[in-house]
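Sequence in, structure out.
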Amino acid sequence: MTTDLHKHDHDDRADLAALAGLVSHTTTQHIPTLYAPASGNEITAGLFFRVGRADETLATAGLTHLVEHLALHRLGLSDLHYNGATANAYTLFHVTGSEEEVVEYLNSVCAGLRDLPMDRLETEKEILRTEAAGRGGGPQHQMPLWRYGAQGYGLSSYNELGTWSLTPDQVRHWAETRFTRDNAVLWITSDQVPDGLDLTLPQGSRFPAPAATSALPTTPAFISGDDGHVVLTSVLRRSTAASVFADVLGRALFRDLRQEGGYSYSAEADYAQRDADFATLTAHADSLPQKQDAVVGGFVDTLARLRAGRIEQSELDSVRTKLLKMYDTPDLAAAALPSYALSLLLGHRILTPEQHRAELNAVTTDDLREVARETWDNALLQVPGRGVEWAGLTLAPQHSQAAVTGTRHQSLEDDEVTLVIGAEGVSLLTPRGPVTVRYDACAAMTTRPDGARTLTGHDGFSVTVEPTLFRGVTPERTAALDAAVPAQAVVRMPAREPDHIPQPRKRTSGARSSGNGRSTWGWTTALWLVGLLAAAWGLLCAVITADEASATAPEWDAVVGVWILELPLVFATWKVYAARRQRRRS
């Protein structure tokens, strides 16, 4: 621990040296602190912690958010402009007010973290579930799941399952180990650190950002999404050229898809840091249903143009001019504090304004072409409905590579679907392929008192075991699941209302008949009688025609016509047989 802390202090000093003359830095109760003055009577402060959703598991999802809510509870109703935010890789408590109000807020947050109000735990869980229910996912909501799976940075696609089962001990331990003085950075828009701060927090370690996982065997890849939206995400190495390219791409999409094509209303791109070394580029375009194919084609064409290096110098110059203007911002040092603090927290290099200007001026169209190629190579594209294999993308895995062996349970709704509960995992066998979750790779299993179980693997695949929908799923079989899945992955859910427990849909027979089939057989018999009469008449006509023409030249057209008349009757008989067989299997 001591060695790690010394290394952490050394790294911080090296990074902070780059800010000399621009912002001031010190430590406040062992917390690295950046400060620079801003005009006005109020000051703003933010307390970053290097912990977020990507540090959790699917079974504990919401844990960091829950700590944030509990820490803020002491403030109650206040006229202060304050809030907390939980992102993938960090948590931020921020406030704007007078010096006294900022001191009161920061002291209250740290006091709350030292002694979380556990009597509020169940209430805050319910508040988080209510908050999630009213929060829209957005067109790119499923992209992290498909790229990363049900872990790490992919958890932002999932509900906060931990709000159902987290215990006071789990929440308290998370606060004690992750919300520590050594895992934090403070910034304040002031010419000095205010007096009266009490930011006492436990000693700990600086946690690096979580390592990225992957659920994509190959890229560029695509998935199907909702109508009206085309979304692309890509993971890029963090660089000034990459941030410039995101702006160039956004402008190119807007021009090609809206101004020239008239296919989209909104077409844009965004660049956001993921961790110390990588960022996520997200591009989005909307469309009307009848214009979706044109938008997909235009989207791909725009990227192809940029990858080929067909980037006008004027495009680059326009973006560069816009980005350089941000250095004309009043109180530049104070405005940059959040960015500097977060870079310090994540371990990313810190650039002074002079260094960043130099890098912006050094970006060339060749640099942008290389970023465009990197964007395409790592791309995940979400398109409405149709595939885009023609563009060189591969469909993301829709099924598991293998199924487990074990007891087989026939679906009560579909004869072509079978659930397998085995010693190593569960599989759902479908006509298009299996979906498998292995117990040793289970991110979470939710359980219901009625016996329902939903298992989600680290790769994002999910299998739901509903005793009401599969034959032979007895309490003994669900008990086998409970014993096999690691306890830390189990999330116990409340009982469902009886009308929320799914029931098998009624089967529909292939023929329009009553359940006993007598009506169908009656119609079929009548059809056969009509068919036989038609056949006899046809043969008689054929014989007469043959006698009139030549005994050696029979009229084969008539004979073939007779048998063609019989084909519908054969088909009808087969349908009746299939319907009766289906009822027997039910």
